[in-house]
């Protein structure tokens, strides 16, 4: 519902004011809502550009869409779900879980749908944010950006694509009205989404042509149904669910060292992945195409038991070069080969290192965040950025993971957010921003750790790296170390700002 500012004959319309404006209603935005309420802060709105909650799990409804971190870990610690149907649950179940979280924790009254945030502008004199959306404007003491690391699809600029006469869509904007049965379909990209889509559509399409720039390492997927007995146990004896989660957590924490400090230790894992190719693909020429030439872990490791058999099927083709041009309904690969198709599905990822929300944020002296991040995204503890007081990121720069659940990182950032807001109240300040020194020191240390990681040394390029080759996406450590780093705000790292001017035209939202 749009805000309905009070209006008198004499005064111009007042702008509704909230303590906190949250952008986005995926795991991050909903989690922020829960934690704000638990901290006794009820004066907040969650602004969502779509018409329902769910973020990633609302937008990605492609065939086969599922999580690749076990559900009992890929869920909120404060909202365990004994009813997960599979070890890696499918998108409809994760989406339904987020709808339930919304109801259970009383978030509906805070949600504003179809409210795309078009501008976030810091008002220096008033010491607050002006939040402009497609349904109205709010002012807010603090803003939480949970706009998502993988929310804005990226389609490469391919010459001739606009003139393609057939159907074109991105994996995260699946067109369910378009029937793929019997069609000649091109899948562009071989990342995590493509690896789930390919086996799901291969049996029904006429011909499947997969454009692969770089092959991924694919490991077997230990997916199975959760038995009725397990569900019963987790629901009647909640500590068993906690134990399951703790085990999944610990197994992943143990892997971190290999990714971060000892990429050589991943050799064994790579051997398992090689055997997975051998098992799934009989044809040596196809095997060669599908075998990566970089160390496992450098790009995201995919999990699938059906990907290789689907690519080896008689109606599938792997073109081991990128899509270079579209001429009518003919797709021309970089190697010059031509492929006639009816539909193109782009599994080409998202705007990650060029987060679109950054172009809409204007901080101290009107400086845009995109401008600030021209040399690469950076923040203090993945959360705050100098020049942008009281702007808190959930999944900010360098908070991504290669091997575990992003919900662990989200919950850590929410600890930090809540501690920041309660600290501000406790010390009687209105806003805070990191000192230049604290932000620089954090990022220097982080990038130093990054130099040894498999993501920087494994011999690949990936979406973790920005245009300059800097890894501004991943966290080079364990999730426990990030948890420790974000447990409490260190006031020594911050400048505090007190509101001096009286606040004009503020009414509660
Ligand atoms: C297909 C897929 C599978 C994944 N699987 C896993 C997995 O198994 N394990 C894992 O850890 N991670 C996984 N991820 C990563 C996943 O994105 C995160 O785990 C998590 O869901 C991110 O939550 P979020 O709330 O930060 O962002 P999102 O879920 O992307 O939510 C962001 C929300 O912000 C809204 N928004 C954006 N801009 C604006 C704006 N300007 N105004 C208003 N609203 C806006 C969007 O509409 C969206 O609803 C996967 C991602 C994808 C795409």
From TrEMBL:
Cofactor: FAD
A GO term, aspect molecular function: N,N-dimethylaniline monooxygenase activity
InterPro entries according to UniProt: FAD-bind_Monooxygenase_sf, FAD/NAD-bd_sf, Flavin_mOase-like
Protein keywords: FAD, Flavoprotein, Monooxygenase, NADP, Oxidoreductase
Family: Belongs to the FAD-binding monooxygenase family.
Protein name in UniProt: Cation diffusion facilitator CzcD-associated flavoprotein CzcO
Organism from which the protein derives: Kitasatospora atroaurantiaca
């Amino acid at each position: 519902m749009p805000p309905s500012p009070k209006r008198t004959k004499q005064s111009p319309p007042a702008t509704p004011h909230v303590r906190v404006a949250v952008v986005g209603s995926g795991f991050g935005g909903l989690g922020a809502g829960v934690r704000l309420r638990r901290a006794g802060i009820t004066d907040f709105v969650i602004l969502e550009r779509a018409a329902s909650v769910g973020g990633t799990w609302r937008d990605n409804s492609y065939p086969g869409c599922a999580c690749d971190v076990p559900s009992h870990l890929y869920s909120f610690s404060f909202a365990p779900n004994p009813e997960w149907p599979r070890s890696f649950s499918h998108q409809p179940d994760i989406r339904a879980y987020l709808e339930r979280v919304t109801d259970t924790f009383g978030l509906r009254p805070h949600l504003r749908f179809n409210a795309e945030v078009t501008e976030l502008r810091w008002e220096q004199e008033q010491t607050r944010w002006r939040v402009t959306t497609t349904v109205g404007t709010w002012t807010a003491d603090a803003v939480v950006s949970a706009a998502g690391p993988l929310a804005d699809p990226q389609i490469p600029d391919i010459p001739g694509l606009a003139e393609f006469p057939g159907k074109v869509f991105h994996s995260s904007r699946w067109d369910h009205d378009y029937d793929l049965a019997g069609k000649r379909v091109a899948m562009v990209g071989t990342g995590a989404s493509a690896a789930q889509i390919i086996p799901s559509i291969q049996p029904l399409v006429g011909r499947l042509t997969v454009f692969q720039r770089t092959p991924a390492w694919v490991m077997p997927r230990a997916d199975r149904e959760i038995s009725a007995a397990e569900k019963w146990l987790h629901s009647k004896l909640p500590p068993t669910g906690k134990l399951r989660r703790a085990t999944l957590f610990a197994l992943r924490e143990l892997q971190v060292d290999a990714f971060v400090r000892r990429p050589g230790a991943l050799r064994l894992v790579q051997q398992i992945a090689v055997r997975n190719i051998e098992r799934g693909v009989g044809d040596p020429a196809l095997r060669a195409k599908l075998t990566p030439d970089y160390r496992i872990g450098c790009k995201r490791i995919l999990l699938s038991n059906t990907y290789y058999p689907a690519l080896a099927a008689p109606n599938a083709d792997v073109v081991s070069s990128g899509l270079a041009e579209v001429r009518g309904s003919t797709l021309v690969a970089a190697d010059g080969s031509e492929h006639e198709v009816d539909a193109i599905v782009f599994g080409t990822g998202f705007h990650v290192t060029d987060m679109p929300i950054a172009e809409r944020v204007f901080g101290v002296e009107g400086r845009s965040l995109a401008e600030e991040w021209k040399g690469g995204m950076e923040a203090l503890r993945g959360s705050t950025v100098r020049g942008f007081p009281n702007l808190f990121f959930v999944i900010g720069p360098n908070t991504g993971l290669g091997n575990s659940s992003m919900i662990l990182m989200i919950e850590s950032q929410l600890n930090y957010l809540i501690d920041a807001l309660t600290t501000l109240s406790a010390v009687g300040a209105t806003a805070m921003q990191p000192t230049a020194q604290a932000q620089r020191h954090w990022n220097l240390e982080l990038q130093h750790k990054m130099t040894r990681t498999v993501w920087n040394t494994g011999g690949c390029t990936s979406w973790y790296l920005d245009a300059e080759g800097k890894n501004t996406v991943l966290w080079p450590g364990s999730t426990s170390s990030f948890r420790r780093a974000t447990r409490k705000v260190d006031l020594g790292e911050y400048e505090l700002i007190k509101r001096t001017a009286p606040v004009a035209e503020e009414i509660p939202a």
